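thought: fold this chain, then report.
action: predict
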Amino acid sequence: MTTIQPIRHIGFIQLQVTQGAIGTNLDRLQQILAQLDPPRPSLIVLPELWPTGFAYRELAKLQDEVATLPNRLQELAEKYDIFLAGSLPERIIDKENLFYNTLQLIGRNGTFGTYRKRYIFPGEEEAFCPGFGACPPIATPVGTFGCMICYDLRFPKLARSQCQQGADLLLCSAQWPLARIQHWQALVIARAIENQTFMVACNGVGKNGDLTLGGHSLVVSPAGEILYEAGEDEAAKIVEIDWQLKEDAQSGFKSFTAEPYLVSAAKIVTAESCVTDAQQRAGIGQRVVYVALDRNVAFSRAIEILETARQRGDYLVLGVPSSLTDLLKSYAALDCVDRVFDLGEISSSAEQRLREICLSVTS
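observation:
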């Protein structure tokens, strides 16, 4: 059995991305790598969408050129004996002119894994769809890496889940605006502290459309100590890390391992409570989905309907026919379901209010 030797050198290349100019951005990356001459091996994080930026109208015509980039990055990884992590626009085959924002982790032997941005910032839906499905960290010969892309940083459960699945460290590729740079710094440090692990986060600089990007890429210790922080100009830095710091941070307790479970009975509420809850959730901006199950739908088919419905929103309210109330706990036990009620209890006016508040899905 081969023993993994954890990576000891991690860092970032904080680029100013020229929107839509893949050749220019690749040339700049090559120039900086040559100047940096990183220790071997090193993990280097690049900004979000480093070859294209958010060039929405140009992404489709750039796809042929984007498709050549993994091979180009592999050549650089082999030349310098490094691992490169940065995101690219990945065309969605069955959706014209829509893309995933996909981080690829590439080494001298090719692509070790990919991660699709889970949380799309408002406005990005013009071109991007969120990634769904399992979200395991990416395993390499020098460690297992949990990944995030920009806005993902605001959602602690994503980082925690990857650490619970064995991530050795966390990385984030971003184009974060200068106007919210204090949030960036605080969140990067928080994700490291919460998960008691190293974190390397790379931001862009310069302009992203009308936004000025904030830079301040970071390498942070498991205790939340900033090991290095860049400024607001282009920068490249590799930091040597001491894995004993992670062992020390986790020696007394492991906070990231805790995962409380909401028992199914707690999800079963009255119809009126569901309406009130849906109003409150919608009021804070959540997309609430309402499914009223048909009494003739099979349980296996119902699961498919509910999982698909939940992908369309942030919170799922389920009405179950009185003839199926023996299955209430079974439906409540599904992770995709947030609240369940007996359809026999709801008045027509309350159900009408529920349908007005929510996105309704027919079963």
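thought: worth noting. The chain has a mean pLDDT of 94.
final: tokens above.
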